[in-house]
Amino acid sequence: MEEYVELFNDEVKEALRDALKDMKGEVDVYVFTSQGDDCQYCDLTVKLMNFIGEATPKIDGKSLLHVHVFNKGKDDEVFKKFMVERTPTVAFLDGLVRWTGAPVGEELRALVETIVRLSMGESGLSPEVAQAVREKVKGNVKIETIVTHACPYCPYAALMGHMVAFEAYKAGRKNVVSDAIEAYENQDVAEKYQVMSVPTMAINGSVEFIGVPTEDNLINSILDKQKIA
To answer: Is the Cβ–Cβ distance between 180 and 103 less than 8 Å?
Structure first.
């Protein structure tokens, strides 16, 4: 955790202000933590989200990013509602878009871009792929993107998965969950998928991509793997 102390300075906050300046609407972020030594990155994650909140544009003196913090053992009903089992977890859109593990290092870029896109109401996906999500993704889909803090390509994969979930959400459906999972903090997940390099993307429990897929390849795989009840 010590390596991230330098993250919290005026220079970084200024860079965050610039990256977040295009925010239009309010965004709620939910941070799930637990007390004790078993959660190495919980305090860092709460500090980071509050730090980002301070850098977001303000309306009437209030930040456009609303940070809500929940603690295991105290807020278990909220954990259950958001289907959160691990800490730290950073979640948006009722838990449909999330990071399991601290979104620091390279993942900070994807986190900031996710906040901006949610705020603007724009996924940034190509019109064709966005339309396919809205019209064809009717089954249940869980996208798991295994990432590490040091991986420069992981943010692109995580962001793509998150924006698919966002497009489904905008269409009034909560059938797509996108989870960026930090490999070292969740080694059992990395072992489950036999991750040798990152990003690794699994759809409904099946590894589909090693590396960053194209949007077309991702949507085609989702359509193939979606679970229709």
So the answer is: yes
* Boundaries of domain holding 61: 2-225
Residue 36 has a pLDDT of: 73
d(CA 223, CA 96): 18
Contact 14, 52 (CB under 8 A): no
How much is the mean pLDDT over the chain? Answer: 95
Q: Is the dihedral of CA 191, 99, 206, 227 positive or negative?
A: positive
Please state the rounded mean pLDDT for residues 160-187: 97
Domain count, the chain: 1
Q: Is the pLDDT assigned to residue 186 strictly greater than 60?
A: yes
- The pLDDT score that the predictor gives to residue 171 is 96
Separation between Cα atoms, residue 133 and residue 176, nearest integer Å: 10
Q: What's 9's domain CATH number?
A: 3.40.30.80
CB-based contact 162:198 (threshold 8 Å): no
